[in-house]
Design goal:
The structure holds 2 protein chains of 2 kinds. By secondary structure, chain A is α+β, with helices and mostly antiparallel strands. Helices cover 33% and strands 21% of the residues of chain A. Chain A has 3 domains: 37 residues; 60 residues, Single Sheet (N-terminal domain of TfIIb); 83 residues, no CATH class. Chain A has a 4-stranded antiparallel beta sheet with strand order 1-2-3-4. A two-stranded antiparallel sheet of chain A has the order 5-6. Chain A has a two-stranded antiparallel ribbon with strand order 7-8. Chain A starts with a strand and ends in a 5-residue tail after the last strand. In chain B, helix 15 crosses helix 17. The chains are: A alpha+beta, B alpha/beta. At the A-B interface, strand 2, strand 3, helix 5, helix 6 and strand 5 of A face helix 3, helix 12, helix 15, strand 12 and strand 13 of B. The structure holds iron/sulfur cluster (SF4). Iron/sulfur cluster sits at the interface of chains A and B.
Chain lengths: 197, 820
């Protein structure tokens, strides 16, 4: 769900407000002159509701992005602020949350799959298909070689102990649910997340 | 968490952020929420303003929380059980407990087996060769109907009340001063403040975080805190409870969904290898009431389990194949945790490893061991939005990561993923709220969502198993996959799958239709054990119903004015915001006080500002207990066999302790450290002693940084640019270290170098007649990112964990400090 300009005070403008850009609203809103510089910056912004990705307070965030979703334009987040409606954070963000734009746009963000071959000291760019094919091959070879159907006492155990998986505590529930569904059904038991570290 | 479930029934924060403002007293211990959870901490300040609440901060350092506290004391790291055990002793001996609550809602009257005992630091049943206990004596005495015997006069020498009193009688105020290093006058003043909340209409809330969990006795520290809250009658009430402030944004969700070695979603447990029989597996977990008439909600385990199997395997799961019970992997070890796994990896027993948004080289204890272990893998797959250290463990970064790439044969894949701003879905905050968010922009370059990477791997494996055959492909080939885009399942579809739906029409006991085939379920009360419902995570049933996505709700109305916004997002279980809230009313169903109204009996049903965590038509006269997940319906002082080290928390020293022996058991070498801890011989060889490493170190984090992520973000790196360590003035004087000098901090496992911050915030403590200096080490900074590169703190930390959870002992270890 993405809304065009959803600041609480603008809801008072009624249904028309939902579809208008903030520029147009300036004409309606009181004290337009004083607020104009900020409104100007956010002109045409798409505002998306999100939740801070860092700590477990779960502060509400509004992500402002440019771009109209059409094929030739890419949305680009350029401003983040606290969600004033959020009952816990009420519009606040701490220094981490307030700086999250620099995480989203960090120069350390990865943009394509890479492999480091054994013994090499460099990364090499590869395609997604190559990466996933090679990884899946490793998995299957290892699983077929080391899968245990029975333990030493003859109990049926159906497990794969020679590959492990760490899941991330910043992913969504939906990602986590699907990850669990796949990992467990491969027979993996060395499976963990940050909850115990 | 692991201390909360054995006490209250669920391993989760009992109350919620806004509710902290309802407290009359806030105890911050084992955490520094002003620093680590700054926006949540505003509700502590609100409590001070609104209720004139007092804040007590107990921490090894003078912290940002301590700076605004009404009472601030410094404690030696790892000795919290002594402080809290002393408090229990004080409350019992001065009779400052909430009597009506304790009698009605706790296990004080229950009678324990005659064989149970505790001698010189060890409970009955200890096997020193295996470091384990035979727990058969850690149980109750039962009558012929199978119910627990009780003595409501509390006079029986083996009732829980008397045993607890006896156990904590050793925790005198002098012992606290000696072990914790807090002058007894300060201890007394803090205890007095806390004891004031024993009255029915005043509450203390406890806030803790990793300062309680990251110890070899972490779960027992938490349990001691939970016991204090039972004695004071503070759990279940607004402004009360024990609030586990979790670290990551969705660590609660990943725990709920069971992404841990021994769990299934919704806190169900995988079978052990001995559990070959499906009926036996269910029977053991479908816990029946141990007192007449109690709820003991786990008795419905089979409904939750079968519904999960239907969600995973669809039509392949049938009654006559025990719902594919044989397909589940079975455990031989209690946990296949990370310390265990990296020990095996270090021994060359793992071929492959996946890190999905997780940076173990920086996060796991003993970095040098972690690095050597990773080098023994055939393949490593790192899925992450950022270029993290783990993916480059093989690359030389000088002293910061001194390895020879040519000698490392691991094939490493680095796969770029989306971050939170680039996907839809829900995450669960510390207070169990599932909050939905939306994608704002596409990811950079070719980065992909984790679900599509996982789907890509699964489909390739399925194709290979179909074409080539191979080891036990059944669960892989039969996994349900009804997603509109099989290559990239949508968050909505997945949320509906874990919420659950009816697979056939389902009826209530009067043959009225409750749900038609295909409809989404309202709550876990609709789940069936006959295969007619599917549900991927029973505690999340209700998150996405026929009325739509409950997690996306945004009504912040608070009709009772006590911070209960039931229309905002959705909380498990069943949108209840304060757990065990039946205990917020007296046994007769009326609130304990006008300020503490939460749910009450209106003559016909339970009503109020929260959704009752209780059968809503069960009258007070039925006497059903408020802790509905516990078999006795009451809170546990006596932990039975649920914990590894014993039914009552006992203090043991950290594995690296600055003092010799355990002052509580000076003559028993088996009771110095946690007797039930699992320590691998190689790791034990890497423990240091106070002779070589005389200072007690503790790790922590800073407001401006989040673990090892924000050192990749410019703004945060400008605010806190460089690695430092905090050293108290008197130690700095002794060592000739001045503010800004570079120092080397070393442990038995390695060294780091950093800038010294010489501070008044850390003071030397007097412990058993000896001066103990503590050193504070922030965890942040590594050899990647835009901040000034630094050494990884976990080069120093020991690979030993809590006996229940294997959470590593990051908060107490030994170091030496030198000026360089
Ligand atoms: S803004 Fe700060 S306090 Fe709020 S969730 Fe993010 S990291 Fe936590």
């Amino acid at each position: 769900m993405t809304l065009q300009v959803t600041r609480r005070q603008f809801f008072k403008l009624g249904a028309a407000g939902m579809a208008t850009s903030s520029m147009a609203m300036m004409g309606f809103a009181p004290d337009a002159a004083q607020a104009s510089i900020r409104h100007f910056k956010l002109t045409g912004a798409k505002i998306t509701r999100n939740i801070c990705t860092y700590c477990s307070v779960g502060c509400g965030m509004l992500l402002y992005s440019r771009g109209d979703g059409s094929i030739n334009s890419t949305d680009d987040i350029y401003h983040v602020e606290g969600d004033p409606d959020h009952p816990v954070s009420r519009g606040s963000l701490c220094p981490k949350g307030a700086g999250v734009l620099d995480f989203i746009k960090s120069e350390s963000r990865l943009s394509h799959p890479e492999v480091r071959e054994p013994g090499s000291s460099e990364w090499k760019r590869i395609s997604w298909d190559d990466a996933l094919d090679r990884i899946a091959r490793h998995m299957k070879d290892d699983r077929d070689a080391n899968f245990e159907t029975h333990d030493e006492n003859g109990n049926l155990v159906n497990r794969w102990l020679s590959t492990g998986f760490l899941a991330a505590s910043a992913t969504t529930n939906e990602t986590a649910y699907l990850t669990h569904k796949i990992v467990r059904n491969l027979g993996i038991l060395s499976f963990d997340n940050q909850a115990r570290v | 968490m692991a201390g909360l479930a054995p006490t209250y029934g669920r391993g989760a924060m009992t109350n919620h952020w806004v509710d902290i403002s309802n407290a009359n007293l806030v105890l911050s211990m084992g955490g520094n929420s002003a620093e680590a959870h700054p926006v949540g901490f505003r509700w502590v300040m609100e409590a001070k303003e609104k209720n004139n609440a007092k804040l007590i901060s107990i921490d090894p350092r003078y912290t940002r929380t301590g700076a605004v506290a009404d009472y601030e004391v410094n404690i030696r790291t790892g000795t919290d059980i002594v402080f809290l055990g002393g408090l229990i002793n004080f409350l019992l001996e001065t009779d400052q407990i909430q009597h009506e609550y304790v009698r009605a809602y706790t296990d004080v009257s229950l009678i324990v087996k005659e064989e149970f005992g505790f001698h010189d630091g060890l409970f009955t049943g200890y096997n020193p060769d295996e470091n384990t206990y035979d727990k058969s004596s850690w149980s109750y005495e039962f009558d012929d109907q199978g119910y627990v015997k009780r003595d409501d006069t509390l006079q029986h020498p083996r009732c829980v009340y008397q045993l607890m009193r006896q156990h904590y009688s050793r925790y005198t105020i002098d012992m606290v001063e000696n072990v914790c290093g807090i002058p007894s006058q300060n201890v007394q003043e803090v205890w007095n403040m806390i004891a004031e909340t024993a009255v029915p209409d005043k509450t203390m809330t406890i806030l803790y975080a990793l300062g309680w969990t990251q110890h070899s006795i972490g779960a027992q520290i938490i349990r001691t805190g939970a016991m204090v809250q039972l004695l004071l009658g503070n759990t279940g009430l607004p402004g009360g409870g024990v609030n586990a402030l979790r670290g990551h944004s969705n660590i609660q969700g990943l725990t709920d969904l069971g992404l841990l070695s021994n769990l299934l979603p919704g806190y169900m447990r995988l079978p052990s290898a001995e559990e070959q029989d499906y009926q036996g597996y269910i029977k053991k977990r479908a816990k029946q009431p141990l007192l007449p008439g109690e709820v003991s909600y786990w008795k419905f385990y089979e409904r939750f389990h079968v519904s999960l199997m239907k969600a995973w395997y669809g039509d392949a799961a049938q009654a006559d194949n025990n719902w594919c019970y044989d397909w589940l992997p079975k455990l031989t070890e209690p946990l296949y945790d990370v310390i265990y796994t990296f020990e095996r990896m270090h021994k060359g027993k793992l071929t492959g490893y996946f890190c999905q948004g997780f940076n173990p080289l920086a996060s796991f204890p003993d970095k040098n061991k972690t690095s050597e272990a990773l080098a023994k893998l055939k393949y490593l797959v790192v899925m992450d939005p950022l270029a993290v250290e783990t993916a480059e463990f093989w690359k030389n970064y000088g002293e910061l990561n001194d390895v020879d790439s040519s000698q490392i044969q691991t094939e490493v894949f680095r796969l770029p993923t989306t971050c939170f701003a680039e996907d839809d879905g829900s995450i669960v905050n510390s207070a169990r709220w599932l909050q939905w968010h939306w994608k704002a922009a596409p990811p950079p370059g070719e980065a992909r969502p984790d679900v599509s990477i996982m789907a890509g791997l699964l489909h390739r494996l399925q194709r290979m198993y179909r074409e080539e055959g191979g080891a036990f492909p059944d669960p892989i080939l039969n996994l349900t996959w009804q997603y509109s885009n099989p290559e990239d399942p949508g968050a909505e579809e997945l949320a509906m799958e874990y919420n659950g739906r009816a697979l056939t029409d389902i009826y209530d006991s009067n043959r009225n239709i409750r749900r038609r085939k295909g409809e989404l379920l309202d709550d876990f009360g609709m789940l069936q054990a006959d295969g007619s419902t599917s549900c991927g995570c029973w505690i999340y049933a209700g998150a996405w119903t026929e009325d739509g996505n409950q997690m996306a709700r945004r009504d912040n109305a608070d009709p009772f004015g006590i911070g209960m916004t039931l229309g905002w997002a959705w909380a498990w279980p069943m949108n209840r915001r304060i757990l065990y809230n039946r205990a917020a009313a007296r046994p007769d169903g009326t609130p304990w006080g006008p300020e503490k109204r939460l749910v009450w009996w209106n003559g016909h049903r339970w009503v109020g500002a929260d959704i009752p965590d209780f059968p809503d038509a069960s009258p007070p006269s039925a006497g059903v207990g408020p802790f509905i997940m516990n078999q006795e319906g009451v809170g546990h002082f006596f932990g039975g066999s649920m914990m590894m080290e014993g039914p009552f928390p006992e203090h043991y020293e950290p594995f690296e302790s600055p003092i010799v022996g355990n002052p509580l058991h000076p003559n028993n070498p088996q009771a110095v450290n946690n007797p039930a801890a699992r320590v691998f011989p190689d790791d034990r060889a890497r423990f240091g002693t106070a002779k070589e490493f005389p200072y007690a170190a503790t790790t922590y984090r800073l407001t401006e940084h989040f673990h090892f992520w924000t050192t990749h973000a410019k703004l945060n790196s400008i605010m806190q640019p460089q690695k430092f360590v905090e050293i108290g003035e008197s130690l700095a004087n002794e060592l000739g270290i001045k503010e800004g000098n570079k120092v080397r901090v070393s442990s038995k496992r390695g060294y780091i170098e950093a800038v010294a911050v010489v501070t008044k915030r850390i003071k030397p403590l007097q412990i058993t007649g000896q001066t103990v200096h503590q050193v504070g080490i922030p965890i942040h900074w590594g050899f990647k990112g835009v901040a000034k590169h630094g050494f990884l703190t976990n080069t120093l930390t020991p690979a030993v964990g809590d006996a229940n959870t294997q959470t590593p002992e990051f908060k107490s270890f030994l170091v030496n400090v030198e000026k360089i």
